[in-house]
Design goal:
Length: 98
């Protein structure tokens, strides 16, 4: 029975891809991109929300955090290394659209 339990525990859980987001923090965006083949679309009918987030809406210090957005738009390498969080992608793409 232990062998079967170990085999089940070692199986990777397959999830459906998620390629669209709207109201997302920069940190969560890095996670989503790492989970979804380094690609994510930021889509919104209104369009203004993402600019408020880039300007620091969710930042504890209220400062702008543009790094992930700029690197994602240009396709540059991005590494996020923090305690409890790590997301690296070798040139992902972000598509903003409103």
């Amino acid at each position: 029975m232990c062998v079967l339990t170990n085999e089940i525990d070692e199986q990777k859980i397959i999830t459906l891809p998620r390629l669209i987001t709207e109201d997302v923090t920069p940190e969560k965006l890095a996670d989503l991109m790492a989970e979804n083949n380094e690609k994510m679309a930021l889509l919104s009918a209104e369009g203004g929300g993402i600019f408020n987030i880039m300007a620091g809406r969710y930042a504890s210090d209220g400062k702008a955090n543009l790094e992930i957005f700029l690197k994602g738009f240009s396709g540059d390498y991005c590494a996020v290394d923090r305690i409890g969080r790590g997301a690296n992608y070798p040139g992902g793409r972000i598509t903003p659209c409103s």
